[in-house]
Design brief:
mainly beta; Porin
């Protein structure tokens, strides 16, 4: 009898512990907010710029934010946002000639591997990127080239985006995340060279790296 009672108590204790254990993985209806460092690393290419070669665009790191809604245990919808990025634009042999700022909000549909009992959730995503360019301006080096460069402008871009990433749940609320995203970003760079109008088609096509901490609501 004592053995039966003891066995019953052990079984009840294990069941209670299982029911009380936190749900580590993402579940349908969860909202996940992540914040961390986000780096845009352009893989730029352009037409020839006044015989001086292609535009070169430097990397920039800013605060990255993303918001994910889990439509099911395995499918998420994510909005990627960030504080404004500012990039220096250069020409080989001349140096930095201009500066431009941009915001690249991106909407992605994601598939999370594993199940609702997994702490480790790798995922892939695909969606659309919309990049807005602003505060585009030549510096003194740029305005001093040839007959002088002025009136710099860059058209906004809409393109496809693809993503791979992984979440690791620390507990039922907190997680760490790492992801890499590719964005198809093309822009028409227009400016004046003296009195002449110039337009240079430029592909930015960056890899976007993010390391972050997330919270599940």
């Amino acid at each position: 009898m004592n053995k039966k009672i003891l066995s019953g108590l052990i079984t009840a204790s294990l069941l209670s512990a299982t029911l009380a254990a936190p749900a580590f993985a993402h579940q349908q209806g969860d909202i996940i907010v992540r914040a961390g460092a986000l780096m845009v690393a352009p893989n730029e290419s352009s037409g020839d710029v006044l015989g001086a070669g292609e535009f070169q665009v430097d990397d920039n790191v800013q605060l990255g934010l993303n918001f994910t809604y889990m439509a099911t245990d395995n499918i998420g919808i994510e909005l990627v946002a960030a504080s404004p990025f500012t990039h220096e634009i250069s020409l080989e042999g001349i140096g930095v000639i201009a500066e431009a700022s941009q915001l690249p909000p991106t909407l992605l549909a994601q598939y999370y591997f594993g199940d609702s009992g997994s702490k480790f959730r790798p995922y892939v995503g695909a969606g659309v990127n919309f990049t807005v360019f602003f505060d585009t301006e030549f510096n003194d080096t740029g305005t001093g080239i040839g007959n002088g460069l002025s009136d710099l402008d860059m058209s906004n871009s809409i393109g496809l985006a693809a993503q791979v990433g992984v979440d690791y749940k620390i507990n039922d609320k907190w997680l760490v995340n790492a992801s890499v995203m590719y964005a198809d970003i093309s822009t028409d760079v227009t400016f004046k060279h003296g009195a002449d109008d110039v337009k240079i088609k430029t592909d930015i096509d960056p890899l976007v790296y993010m390391v972050s901490i997330g919270y599940v609501f």
